[in-house]
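Can you give me the bound-state structure? Components:
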Amino acid sequence: MKFSVIIDALPHLLGAAVTTVWISLLGVMLGQVIGVLVCVARQSGSRAADMAGGVYVSFFRGVPLLIQLLLIYYMLPLIGIDVPPLVAAIGALSLASGAYVSEIYRGALNGVPHGQSEAALALGFPAPTIWTRILLPQAFRISVPALVNELILLLKASSLISVVGVAELTRTSQTISASNYRPLEIYLAAGLIYLAINGALAAFGALVERRLQQG
Amino acid sequence: MDLTLLVDYGPALLRGFGVTILCWAAGCAIGLALGFALMLLGRTGLKPLRWAVRAYIEVIRGTPFLIQLFLLYSGGPVIGLRLEATTAGILGLGVYGSAYFAEIFRAGYQAVPKGQVEAALSLGMPYGGILRRVILPGMLVSTLPAIVNMMAILTKETVVLSIITVPELMYEMQTMAAETFATFETILGMALFYWLLVEAVSRLGRRAEARVTRFLTHSSNARA
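Here's the bound-state model for the whole set.
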């Protein structure tokens, strides 16, 4: 063990960690949008939408992320869309996270008393308003712990996008340890950075949860 | 897709599938055993030991599986731990799973009614007997859904082993894709295959759950 190795590599690793964080945040935010849309579509009462949503959720939760990533990475050029690896990576992460998020919301909606949407219907609220003003805000509050958990899972899963060559934390540690032959120190440092980010996220999540409970 | 490819690469893919199953089964076995041991260690009166177990669980759950694999496979030789890719993969999968299994077992242990343990104690059962005949069966029932879920997750994690060159299905598939240029078809086929595999593991698990909890429906019938 030579700690000077870690100190020398630290600026690069931290820079890469920033990439990891923003990719994960973007993935979870897009996943949030996809997840809400899928969840609403599945509850809309249309059989076809429910089935399509069900297949989407089952596929993206059942197939390993690495395969989803390669699938999107190789599929897009085939249908004529040439995108940089970064876009494919973010696409895969958001699609995967969308499947989990839609299930989180589905669970959270069960926590919103049924009488509320019935009351809104009786008062003549149109369906979109019921969703945006009554159901989703409450579902969001209920699902905050699960969403923070999802963000942490996605941050760890984002290490897999190193495979398509995105220079995030894992890829950068691979590159550095290949050039200085110090895999032990570099991967240990990378692991600690992941741990620190996840610890911070968990603490932030607990804070938000407390705030929302007060509100 | 050219079907002769499947004939040519069939044996390699089959071998890869064998390695996948081996890694998964051995990884799950190590994870379950280690997780159970960790849970017991975490319940001892020794504070430093409890902290060590807690730290182990938090570190494993807070870092990506891929980084753990790199540490074991590339970092291991630096401290004299030279492992074959497959051995490293199995060990890595076991260590990764153990932290999650330990948490599942911890919750399961706490869910066993205290009165049952006290009753067994007052009947003069030794601790080993209580653990084996009272706590474990109770835990099995309450933790099985979570264990099955974790085992399905570990099925998916086996593909990550291809990155450290474990010759499992994903690795063989990528070799095939690289040699034949039928990349997209191969990956699509693989996606469908793993979809079915994970679904099969979950279904088998649900059947096991139904079997293990069968007595619950019986006893509730008896009470009613």
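A couple of observations. Chain B touches chain A at residues 58-59, 62-68, 70-71, 74-76, 78-79, 156-160, 162-163, 170, 183-184, 187-188, 190-191, 194-195, 198-199 (CB under 8 Å). The two ends of chain B are 59 Å apart (CA to CA).
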